[in-house]
Amino acid sequence: MWFSENWKDYELLDTSDGERLERWGDLILIRPDPQIIWKGVAKHPAWKKADGIYRRSNTGGGAWVKNDLPAQWQIGYGEDLKFVLRPMGFKHTGLFPEQAANWDWFSGLIRKAKAEDPNRQIKVLNLFAYTGGATMAAAKAGAAVVHVDAAKGIVAQAKENAQLCGLAEAPIRYIVDDCKKFVEREIRRGNKYDAILMDPPSYGRGPGGEVWKLEEKLYDFVELTTKILSDDPLFMVINSYTTGFASGVIRYLCDRVLTPKFGGQVEVDELGLPVTETGLVLPTGVTARWSR
Q1: What is the percent of the chain with per-residue pLDDT over 70, rounded to a whole number?
Q2: For position 203, what pLDDT does the model report?
């Protein structure tokens, strides 16, 4: 399992009864997590001190049943990444901390490639890019990034994060668009990228009402993106939060689509978050990493 041990401003304190107990900076949150099926084992004293509690509704959806949180606050990762957080609908804060494991991995590949050829411009495409954690990590490592997400407000938050990270003038293009339509246009334009990151939702809609269902669309979409990889690509990262997808499914996809065209190697594993109270690691989804 892959996880980052470099977080200081985020900590998964405990897990029990379908919920996470988390520290985001100085604030304590309780949020639901369907992976947490064990019950009656909550021990950490911070369960009684939460600043924010999000609870699922029996009829679907959910709400913050306690919200003593500020409208927004900031946390940092490593030496130079900073992010603005907000309590959103559907339990989100604007950041997925488990993704730091991927940030560390591909940032090392970008820096290595830049060290080998300082004049090389490394172009990274970040699809379903959300608030830009991966975008900021890639830009800090020295890449030029195209950041694509269908939600205008989320892309605006990514720009805020760039300001916080000192990347306001960095070579980052922000695109509000359906990811598939954008890739199709890039194919027609003949644009190429040295690396592709994708964090597709299990289900979603594009700005024009386009429906995305991961289990139906992922294979064709990954195959489509190979048409915009450069002749000397560095890596691709594919995240999947769909619990029905085993790690072997994502590996099989990559071995069918990526390695026949580009060679290289595929690694597939779960991302996870260490739990302070138990010393165990909570799985948070499957990630495939392809690299040359």
Answers
A1: 95
A2: 67
Residue 274 · residue 234 · CB < 8 Å: no
- C-alpha 98/C-alpha 4 separation (Å) is 7
Percentage above 90 pLDDT, the chain:
86
Look up the pTM and report it.
0.94
Which residue in 232, 228, 226 sits closest to 122, CA to CA? 232
Look-up of token digits 């890739």: 183
Cβ pair 281, 1 in contact under 8 A:
yes
Q: How many CA atoms lie within 13 A of 221 on its CB side?
A: 22
Dihedral sign, CA of 165, 207, 199, 188? negative
Name the CA dihedral angle for 69, 71, 76, 82, rounded to a multiple of 10 degrees: 170
Tokens read off for 212: 């995305």
CA angle (214 as vertex; 213, 220 as ends), nearest 5:
105
d(CA 36, CA 138): 31
- The pLDDT score that the predictor gives to residue 206 is 62
Q: Are 234 and 122 in contact (CB under 8 A)?
A: yes
Q: What is the mean pLDDT of the chain?
A: 94
